[in-house]
Amino acid sequence: MPTRAAILAEAARLRAHFEALGAQPVETTVLQPAETLLDLYGEDIRARAYVTSDALRGEQMLRPDFTVPVVQMHMEHGAEPARYTYAGEVFRRQENDADRANEYIQVGFEIFARERPAEADAQVFAAIHEILAPLALTPATGDIGILMAAVEGIDTTERRKAALRRHIWRPRRFRALLDRFSGRAPLPAARAALLAAADPFAKAGTLIGLRSRAEIEARIEALREDAEAAPISENDLALLEALLAVRGSSTDALERLRDIAVDLPAIAPAVERLAQRLDALAAHGIDTATLSFEASFGRSQMEYYDGFVFGFTARARPDLPPVATGGRYDALTRQLGGGREIPAVGGVIRPGLSLELGGGA
Question: With left for phi above 0 and alpha for psi between -120 and 50, is residue 11 left, alpha or beta?
């Protein structure tokens, strides 16, 4: 295992590399306000965050990543366009594997730019690809935006679309919802009994908890409306399943997605953005004919990604987490910008893992 001193030296080298690409070095505090930021992370990060309470500042957490606080900083004070780089510790609890670090160094590169988003995607990916090239890692890419567009394009209620959008990052839950909304799976027995009851409160006992009776009645009515809605058609379901099954080289995946877009035109703009990104990647020397693309890639990671996603892993070391990950998070800037937004993309490297695999200057 590399020493902490070696990891810090490698982190400094990586950050200097990003500075040479025009990135401004920034710092964020280790203690972050938990109330707002925890809602922006996926279930995995939320469950593993170290959270504490401060008498004056309220609930606080040890920084689980840099991207969210950097976006918050930029939306409050940043000029446009902007490039940032950073290096420092992040903290995540490890409940199932004592050998995995609960504190490690992260180095990142973020681009905020309204113009040419495909080029920004390519610049971030290519910069990290170049740094990690000596390690012969396996890169994988995806695009959450295509799946989001597909959900918008199916013929079903807005409430069902909202539920599917909310669970895009939870593949098993997403699949269960699709099965239920299409009629392939029945309602859970308890829910079916609740909806069938003439008076759901008849045997409910004393009302406890934070929800009022009116709120509970509104929720039951929404469940009844959903149960009466027409099922998602077999055609729409088949198109979603075909999209989720797309996997292979980026160029082959693009052609398959274009075929699907003929019958699901809602995804056509997102597919065209993929085509523009592949052109930009090729212009940066990336062989897109061999670059892997998986339509489902990134769905179990942080929920703020809403477009291009990527990761670099060591195929010979499946025991290790990804050495680098990243993606596009345009919607996050809107959430933290109070209605303002700016397209943004970034990626992070774990220098400790790259050294363990034989990287470094």
Answer: alpha
Instruction: Report d(CA 201, CA 206) in Å as an integer.
Output: 10
Radius of gyration of the chain measured on its C-alpha atoms: 22
Strand partners, 327: 309, 346
**Alpha carbon distance 283, 286 (integer Å):** 7
- From CA 163, how far away is CA 170, in angstroms rounded? 11
CA distance 188 to 190: 6
Inform me whether the pLDDT recorded for 226 exceeds 80: no
Q: CB neighbours of 25 closer than 8 A, spacing ≥ 6? A: 15, 19, 84, 85, 86
Whole-model pTM: value is 0.88
Contacts of 71 by beta carbon, 8 Å cutoff, 6+ apart: 110, 329, 332, 333, 336, 344
Structure confidence at residue 322 (pLDDT): 94
- Output the pLDDT for position 76: 86
DSSP 131: H
The residues with which 110 forms a beta bridge, in sequence order, are 84, 346
